[in-house]
Design brief:
There is one protein chain. By secondary structure, the protein is mainly β. It has a single domain, classed as Sandwich (Immunoglobulin-like), CATH 2.60.40. It has one helix at about 5-10; strands spanning about 20, 25, 30-35, 55-60, 65-70, 75, 75-80, 85-90, 100-104. The strands form 2 sheets. Strands 2-3-9-5-6 form a 5-stranded antiparallel β-sheet. The longest helix has 6 residues, at about 5-10. The protein starts with a helix and ends with a strand.
Length: about 100
């Protein structure tokens, strides 16, 4: 939780005009996207294998940097028409919630 404290305790809803393909929050010029684990139930044995995920964040300026908060890994992204498309590879996914930090 310490790594994602700002994303949860200080951040608010996305500003009007912005939207994301997953739950997301905003803190000043930073956006946090929350990617849930592949789960078909509520127990560890119900977890499905991780997969590559494509995330989108619309209505924003071009990001300076996009990282995975757990280890600060830079993530590949593209930008066009006020829309960021982010690639989160299966190899970087966890069995819990992954948080992607978008620095605008």
């Amino acid at each position: 939780m310490k790594v994602n404290r700002d994303a949860v305790t200080k951040a608010k809803s996305l500003p009007p005009g912005e939207s994301a393909s997953v739950p997301a929050t905003a803190l000043e010029k930073t956006r946090y996207l929350f990617v849930q684990a592949n789960n078909k139930g509520k127990y560890a044995e119900d977890l499905l294998p991780t997969t590559d995920v494509t995330l989108t964040l619309s209505g924003v300026e071009k990001p300076a940097k996009v990282t995975l908060t757990s280890d600060e890994t830079p993530l590949a992204f593209s930008y066009a028409d006020k829309k960021v498309t982010i690639q989160l590879p299966a190899s970087k996914r966890s069995t819990g919630v992954d948080v992607v930090k978008v620095a605008l």
